[in-house]
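Appendix B. Chain record.
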Amino acid sequence: MKGVPFFIVYVFAEKKYTGNQLAVFPDAGDMSGEDMQNLAREMHYSETTFITGDQQPDGGFPVRIFTPQEELPFAGHPTLGTAYIIRYYLMDTDPGQVVLNLGVGQIPVNIDKGGVLWMTQRTPEFGETVPRESIARVLNLSPADFHTQFPVQSVSTGIPFLIAPVNSLQTVQNCGMNREHYPAALEEFDTKAILVFSTETLLAENDIHARVFAEYYGVPEDPATGSANGCLAAYLSYYEFFGEHGVEVTVEQGYEIDRPSLLYLSTKAEKGQIVVRVGGRVIPVGRGYLL
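Structure tokens predicted for this chain:
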């Protein structure tokens, strides 16, 4: 491959050198899946995206998403970051909405007047619940560290995550993957990635402090995870965690790995379903060519 263009953006970022890094390859129509996987491994961000064609008759741009280890049908910060590149660098007019055709189907992205990009995720699906004793071993915690009123449960809006509420900010900061117990957990759990959260935060203006561990996908800890936070939004709504069904919260993530990030979560009920929206800002930081 020669002269392959790419962009680098930070997603869920409030300023440069924060948020989740993303590489976007806008002209990937002639690339093979093997090429894409090799480039994603070389970029070595949580995910790298590839726009494989111009806008299609159904109104969406075909996009493929790769971690350093495998292709994903959906991921949050790649969706927002790629939509940003399409809107501001590949389109001549403002369409009001950018639609991505992903492995899970079409995902629409809108930009509000404040510059926040919002994606509407797929209808959430609620799966397995996991014993606190089992998840505690994986996270180097005690079963007593977990919230007693709400379960540790798998939720998916395209990619499943175990949502694990704990009692304190200190617990979130102290947890980490126990590699001795993790292989056994992969056999025990259907869900491979974990979001741990508390309602105690570092910054008073935020509502939730979260960490996401996705080592199974080649991402030991993610700075900002739109897909996982969409699952969290659905979980908070389903269990009326804050006393009501609708959710309007901000989530801080990435502080433990020096990539502070901010995500906006919103839900509403519509025709008996939970509609999940996840938002964040995108900051462009680079563009170039691979020779």
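Further analysis of this model is presented in Appendix C.
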